Amino acid sequence: MGSIEQSVQSTDHHGPAKGITRWLYTTNHKDIGTLYLLFSLTMFFIGGCMALTIRAELFQPGLQLIMPEFFNQMTTMHGLIMVFGAVMPAFVGLANWMIPMMVGAPDMALPRMNNWSFWILPFAFSMMLSTLLMEGGAPNFGWTFYAPLSTTYAPPSVTFFIFAVHMMGISSIMGAINVIATILNMRVPGMKLMDMPLFVWTWLITAFLLIAVMPVLAGVVTMMLMDIHFGTSFFDAAGGGDPVLFQHVFWFFGHPEVYIMILPAFGVVSEIIPTFARKRLFGYASMVYATASIAILSFIVWAHHMFTVGLPLVGELFFMYTTMLIAVPTGVKVFNWVATMFRGSMTFETPMLFSLAFVVLFTIGGFSGLMLAIAPADFQYHDTYFVVAHFHYVLVPGSVFSIMAAAYFWLPKWTGHMYNEAMGKLHFWLSFIGVNVTFFPMHFLGLAGMPRRIPDYALQFADFNMVATFGAFLFGFSQLIFVYNVISCIRSGKKATAQVWEGSHGLEWTLSSPPPYHSFTEPPAFTSPHRANG
Amino acid sequence: MRRNGRALLFAGLFYAPLVSADWQVNLIEGATEISRSVYNLHMVIFYICVAIAVIVFGVMFWSIFWHRKSRGAKAAHFHESTWVEIAWTIVPVIILVSMAVPASTTLIQMYDKNSAELDIQITGYQWKWRYQYLNQDIDFFSSLSTPPEQISNEQIKGENYLLEVDKPLVIPAGKKIRFLLTSNDVIHSWWVPALAVKKDAIPGFVNESWTRVDQPGIYRGQCAELCGRDHGFMPIVVEVKSPEDYQMWVAEQASLKVVEQQSAQKEWSQAELMIRGEAVYKASCAACHQLEGQGIPGVFPALVGSPLMSGDSAEHIDAVLHGRSGTAMQAFAEQLNTVDLAAVITYERSAWGNQGGAVTVQQIAELLKE
Amino acid sequence: MSSQAYYVPAQSRWPILASVSLFLMAYGAGTLINALSADSGGLLGLGFLLLGALSMGLILVGWFGHVIDESGQGLYSDQMDRSFRWGMSWFIFSEVMFFAAFFGTLFYVRILAVPWLGGEGEKGVSNMLWQGFKATWPLMSTPDMKAFPGPKGLIDPLHLPLINTLLLLSSSVTVTVAHYRLKQDRRPQVILWLLLTVVLGCAFLVFQALEYIEAYHELGLTLQAGIYGATFFILTGFHGMHVTLGTLMLLIILLRVIRGHFAPDHHFGFEAVSWYWHFVDVIWVGLFLFVYLL
Ligand code: HEA
Ligand code: HEA
Ligand code: CUA
Ligand SMILES: [Cu+2]
């Protein structure tokens, strides 16, 4: 146990500890950020391999590689791992690395708790993955685990799934508390809320969403546990409960959850586009208000996932209208990005390429979302591949591309070396082509009537499935370039300057590349960008 | 693995993509007034989105092309404009309202469940559908009829691969038909694209939906809510007949009932029961307990060597007739007729080396009367 | 803003140990609960659970002890203090949302699901599946009485629950008084009022236990009694757990006050616990209204 003398020292001693204990015991926001990012990458690969298993089975009609039982397990685990294991931790990793540097703080507000937030995750996911080896198999009821398929009819491993979800929830809540405390309390003197970089703003709002909805997820899995093992009837009409109640509670969590996966992405893109357009972000204030509006609206749209469960008409109309409204603040964001590029002086380094692809492809995903929001039309789209196309467009070239963009954007800052630009561009183009070849045909499949979560399909769906599978393998294997590029960037490469990019502004770019172990030991001088540019 | 069907298998693998050269990339217009208005709604919204995309991406690509540093572009300094920002908040709102109006109209129309001429209760089971014509003596199950050999690629896949059933739902054309949807176990969803009807079947609750199909024809759909292992294998086929043909079909159902009752009176030998039982087993039990009765450890119990199969037949019969509450084991008393029940129980008790011995049709009939 | 340097703690062993304990607890609980229906593996699960819980307890003692030491050394600036405050406030907010899920459940079944099952409203057709079922609240008979036999009687809200309400409300007052006395640095008084709070908390728990016994043995109000029992126990049960935790924390604070911790102007640990206690109290008022009274 660090004795007191040691702790006192740590305020003025710098540099990481040696060996494995550096990572196990760390209280440093950068080390923890790195851990989160590596963990996320690992999960992305595991979840990706599951996706490839799914795609391989769907390459042709008929059952060839895996049985339906296992197929359902793959779909479920793929969704869960990508959402909770890959995308969310990646954004927490970015927050850990960047927020203290952006607000001029030495570290996160609660560094020990920060470590705890991270280290719960590997245990939670080991438990989640270990269900694959259990008798009866892993959870097979979809990442949305609707009761009673996930209660009365679930394999015994569901109990471990429930506890794994609890652990992830604890981790996310603590992580979010830390982010909020850091942002609200650790800004350099003089930095007002409306001076903060947008990445910080979007994370502040995301953290609020996390704290508001992760406990609800914990509540709903707790009710499942009670129904399965203690004889309650929350989701059983025979005792006066309702299976649809599960869906209401789940989606009250679930819809804000999807914005948890996109708001930080908005933040990242809002940092990158101005940098490479060499022009200040257009409409800073409206960006902040739009983000907040999206977050608030996200609490009252949940039942758009449930249009077919037989909601009363007023409910159906209410949720249709509120959902459609979300297009307005999201549109403001898109327009602002475009206006930022307009009459800029643009260059197209890899982070910018990923961000541009983000704007286009996310918007396409948003449009399909808007179509889904139209309740009577959703009766035709619901639970088809049209939905799968929608959410992969917002999640893969949306969230995942923004994470890639962020990685390329900040890697030189983190490592002190430039990555290999040619390889980055290759990675981008292959990913861009791969993603579209994979997910665009899914729109056609869905409209033509292919349900989701099926291991085998009617013959008229054969061609597009084959195309999608080709695309998935192309996209998947292109990610190896990314890994190679990251590793070689950590090891070697051209030295990066402190500012790294010609157009970069902000406190994080005043620190050397790589930054000192404790970011700002003294509060840096800060002038509001508003004052600077009038 | 299975080596015999190799040639066939290869034929099957390469056959599939070839036959389906006509690509379907859009919603179908369907066969009802509702499905057509949904289609129109879909197209309108789609075109609006395309138009917005053209404008937004147009400006973006314009900038990418002209305002690039390599062309010597210098960055401008503007970074906000209240008027522009207000404008592009208001305009989308107006566009959205113009979408919401037709959407609401169609939705309200869909929710008008009044004045139906025929009520059909549809119940989802893992993994088949049950159709009960209320106020009529028609009640049957409808399950996948694609042979397993096609699914495992040992046989060439038929035209309606995975979209065919043993007994389709039959309804008259031109009449408003109300569906009352519920489920026996987990949530299913009854979806026929051509009717634009998709409604969840929820255990313990009843959902309502309706349709009126103009033209006779055969319309196919699938279960649209993940409902376990064979979710991908519970299709829906609706056969719409002209009112006259429909009346004939109704009459036919009544005579089939009589035939069935007669067969229950007849003496069945064990050998006959075994043959019939095997067929019933494959159709109703094998999905869970597996073809060889081996089950799936931890999920579905094995029947091979199970004490239930060799012990007192009463317990075995009870399990099959009434199911096991709280598990996936269904009550088959309502799904199968007396002969089928006797046959399948006999089969389970004697197949795969089980030594339980036969049960008789009469035995079952007695129990069912109670 | 304070010019004091921000204190970044050195490496710490506690978090990783806490993660391991949490894993042991979760894994143990999972195994144990699964053993309920599989009748094997129970001992193993229980072992893991106890091991995890025990080590978690020790770790928390060590970890908080460490923080208290640091605080005692004056390492924490005002800014640090604010970080703790933000942390605690948002943690309580997360707890509020946890309860919100269960309150939401209660309202949903009461206002929508049960009436639908009983034949009212837009989905009243559902009653065709449960002929004879009448919707009432509290739900005395369930749609399927064989599976969920419904309670025989109900708890009289004006008896034990009312007493408990008074107990908790007054405990909120006593803890506030203790806080004022601490600010005035009148330590013996602080001890007295805190002690009173702890006693009130314990009394609440005793009554709650009595009420559960009555519910199970006399009223047939159990977890398996249908949706009323289910919502009743999940809400009161989780609340009870929070009272237990709160009482424990108050006790620790009491011991610390006796040891001479906390300064009149610097006592965040004390405040955090009292915030928590007020939160538990507010939840109870909600419970009393919606679970017992209305
Ligand atoms: C990052 C994740 C993310 C994001 C950002 C979104 C964004 C949106 N989503 Fe999506 N969604 C998911 C992830 C996401 N979704 C997931 C994972 C599921 C499936 C879950 C499951 O069942 O497994 C899902 C499912 C889903 C459904 C349920 C479908 C079904 O099951 O039947 C619906 C229905 O309304 C929906 C709607 C929307 C809408 C309206 C938006 C909006 O926020 C989009 C807004 C954006 C735009 C509209 C584009 C930009 C705007 C302009 C350029 C302005 C001008 C435009 C107009 C005026 C039209 N989504
Ligand atoms: C952020 C979330 C996220 C991400 C990134 C992805 C990424 C991908 N997803 Fe999916 N997906 C979901 C979230 C996500 N998904 C969700 C929530 C569902 C719903 C689940 C449900 O229905 O319950 C779903 C469902 C889903 C389905 C539908 C399954 C069904 O309905 O049965 C499909 C089918 O094609 C699919 C495919 C893919 C593919 C090909 C990728 C690719 O982008 C993945 C690419 C990545 C890799 C391939 C890994 C990296 C590369 C390598 C490791 C190379 C080396 C490889 C080998 C050696 C094999 N996903
Ligand atoms: Cu039944 Cu899916
Ligand atoms: Cu949503």
From TrEMBL, chain A:
It comes from the Bacteria. The chain crosses the membrane at residues 35-56, 76-97, 118-138, 158-186, 198-225, 245-269, 281-305, 317-339, 351-375, 387-411, 426-446, 466-487. GO terms for molecular function: cytochrome-c oxidase activity; heme binding; metal ion binding; oxidoreductase activity. Keywords: Cell membrane, Copper, Electron transport, Heme, Iron, Membrane, Metal-binding, Oxidoreductase, Respiratory chain, Translocase, Transmembrane, Transmembrane helix, Transport. GO terms for cellular component: plasma membrane; respiratory chain complex IV. Its EC number is 7.1.1.9. Residues 23-527 form the Cytochrome oxidase subunit I profile domain. It catalyses: 4 Fe(II)-[cytochrome c] + O2 + 8 H(+)(in) = 4 Fe(III)-[cytochrome c] + 2 H2O + 4 H(+)(out). GO terms for biological process: electron transport coupled proton transport; oxidative phosphorylation; respiratory electron transport chain. It is an enzyme of class 7 (translocase). It is a multi-pass membrane protein. Pathway: Energy metabolism; oxidative phosphorylation. It is found in: Cell membrane; Membrane. Gene3D superfamilies: Cytochrome c oxidase-like, subunit I domain. It holds the Pfam family COX1. Belongs to the heme-copper respiratory oxidase family. Cytochrome c oxidase is the component of the respiratory chain that catalyzes the reduction of oxygen to water. Subunits 1-3 form the functional core of the enzyme complex. CO I is the catalytic subunit of the enzyme. Electrons originating in cytochrome c are transferred via the copper A center of subunit 2 and heme A of subunit 1 to the bimetallic center formed by heme A3 and copper B. This is Cytochrome c oxidase subunit 1. It comes from Amphritea japonica ATCC BAA-1530.
From TrEMBL, chain B:
It catalyses: 4 Fe(II)-[cytochrome c] + O2 + 8 H(+)(in) = 4 Fe(III)-[cytochrome c] + 2 H2O + 4 H(+)(out). Keywords: Copper, Electron transport, Heme, Iron, Membrane, Metal-binding, Oxidoreductase, Respiratory chain, Translocase, Transmembrane, Transmembrane helix, Transport. One of its GO terms (molecular function) is cytochrome-c oxidase activity. Its main location: membrane. One of its GO terms (cellular component) is plasma membrane. It is found in: Cell membrane; Membrane. Residues 19-114 form the Cytochrome oxidase subunit II transmembrane region profile domain. Residues 272-352 form the Cytochrome c domain. Its EC number is 7.1.1.9. Its cofactor is Cu cation. Residues 115-252 form the Cytochrome oxidase subunit II copper A binding domain. The keyword Lyase does not apply. Subunits I and II form the functional core of the enzyme complex. Electrons originating in cytochrome c are transferred via heme a and Cu(A) to the binuclear center formed by heme a3 and Cu(B). This is Cytochrome c oxidase subunit 2. The gene is coxB.
From TrEMBL, chain C:
Pfam families: COX3. Keywords: Membrane, Oxidoreductase, Translocase, Transmembrane, Transmembrane helix. It is an enzyme of class 7 (translocase). It is found in: Cell membrane; Membrane. InterPro entries: Cyt_c/ubiquinol_Oxase_su3 (IPR024791), Cyt_c_oxase_su3_dom (IPR033945), Cyt_c_oxidase-like_su3 (IPR000298), Cyt_c_oxidase_su3-like_sf (IPR035973), Cyt_c_oxidase_su3_a-hlx (IPR013833). The chain crosses the membrane at residues 16-37, 43-65, 86-109, 190-210, 230-255, 275-293. Residues 2-294 form the Heme-copper oxidase subunit III family profile domain. Its EC number is 7.1.1.9. CDD domains: Cyt_c_Oxidase_III (cd01665). It comes from the Bacteria. One of its GO terms (cellular component) is plasma membrane. This is cytochrome-c oxidase. It comes from Amphritea japonica ATCC BAA-1530. The gene is coxC.
